[in-house]
Amino acid sequence: MPKHGTNRKAGAATRAIHLGYDPAEFRGALTMPMFLTSTYAFETAQHGANIFAGEAQGYVYGRTKNPTQELLEVRMASLESAEAGLAMASGIAAITTTVFTHGKSGDTILVDQVLYGCTFAFFAREITEFGITTVFVDMTDLKAVEDAMKASPRMVFFETPANPTMRMVDIEAVSNIARKAGAIVVVDNTFATPIIQRPLEMGADLVVHSATKFLGGHGDLLGGIVCGSSELVNPIRGRGIRVLTGATISPFNAFQILRGLKTLKLRVNAHSQSARLVAENLAQSEKTTSVIYPTLPDYPQQELAAKQMGDQGGAIIAVRFDGGVEAGHRFINALDMIKCAVSLGDAETLVQHPASMTHSIYTPEERAMFGIDDDLLRIAVGLEEVEDLNTDIDNALSQI
Ligand SMILES: Cc1ncc(COP(=O)(O)O)c(C=O)c1O
């Protein structure tokens, strides 16, 4: 484990840059070198056997742990106010290994209704094949959450803000209810990042991320991470599901995410500032019928947004157009600089149509039930000059 190069109480940006690394350890290299090795040589046969037996510290093989991955885990755990972190090959790997480790056949898991499409498909269609019962609950309705506790769930899982509708779940309130029932609360914090929102400080037990998004920040990698207490993270790490399914992150991806973390705070602040201005611009257009963004004055859950996310709304805007799906498609096709692509948290601003793209894995009936409407577009505001974004948007609006 790397030494800690800075005070754990330093500010978030400082910890994201310095924590856990001392250049003196590696010939003064300012950036910790990347460990591109698949295996590690033991000093002696007995040394190897001792490491396997847990009687000596050391590295064994790339699928179990790697120093680059460990530094990422130290920094992300610190940013999320967690004791431990475990980086993985993708956000979905972080979610599935967490659920498979802590959920067993016969368990019930309560899951919010509005989730990233593949997360939804995992809970709705795949995990049920392993004897786990998934109960979808509208977690914005605390009474419904209370009632659902009668099923004695092992785990409660939600995203907030949720992909793609931007509705929020009250982390503190749901965690309080779940704690009384003995359930583990897992929050997907991908949209907000720990710069804006730290679910563990509000009572959640585990936080998961698609590091592919803001943590990496440059649209050039896949990664995921889970953070929480050692008691909950270590069983996922150990010789458990992550190692047995090969969901390990590559050292190269861990290195890139470490680079991303160094500018996370700056980038998230810039994403939020621009997204607010883009959201205001979209909202004042007669061509849009609704613009959902946490810091806009008409955001339906304003009090909760302020409590959980403070004065930052993040990068994501949900928007509907007069003229429905066709108008939305015309808007996308009329954009020039802004690209039609899934993902978010990149430097490039991206727009996509959830019903036919990221959330097409929900059936039309499920989308209708859960409010993922056909006329909704998701815009992930990037880091370009906001004037250029609004010029592109105004041009496109004038054509629909
Ligand atoms: C909120 C959220 N969670 C998890 C994931 C899955 O992450 P990954 O694509 O890194 O597996 C995504 C992907 O879009 C997401 O938006």
Structural commentary:
- The protein has 400 residues and is of the alpha/beta class.
- It has a 7-stranded mixed β-sheet with strand order 1-7-6-5-4-2-3, with helices on both faces. It has a 5-stranded mixed β-sheet with strand order 8-9-12-11-10.
- β4, α7 and β5 form a beta-alpha-beta unit.
> In DSSP terms, counting alpha (H) and pi (I) runs of 4 or more, how many helices?
16
- Identify low-pLDDT runs: none
- Mean pLDDT score, rounded? 96
Number of strands: 12
Helix content: 25-40%
Order of helices and strands: HHHEHEHEHEHEHEEHHHHEHEHEEHEH
What compounds are bound to the protein? pyridoxal-5'-phosphate
CATH superfamily of the largest domain: Type I PLP-dependent aspartate aminotransferase-like (Major domain)
CATH architecture of the largest domain: 3-Layer(aba) Sandwich
Number of domains: 2
Give the DSSP E fraction (strand runs of 2 or more residues).
Answer: 5-15%
Radius of gyration (Å):
21 Å
The third-level CATH topology of the largest domain is Aspartate Aminotransferase, domain 2
Sheet with most strands: strand arrangement = 1-7-6-5-4-2-3
Structural class: alpha/beta
Largest sheet: 7 strands, mixed
Based on Cα principal axes, name the global outline. globular
| Head-to-tail CA distance between termini | 56 Å
Q: Which terms would index this structure?
A:
400 residues, alpha/beta, Aspartate Aminotransferase, domain 2, Aspartate Aminotransferase, domain 1, seven-stranded mixed sheet, 12 strands, binds pyridoxal-5'-phosphate
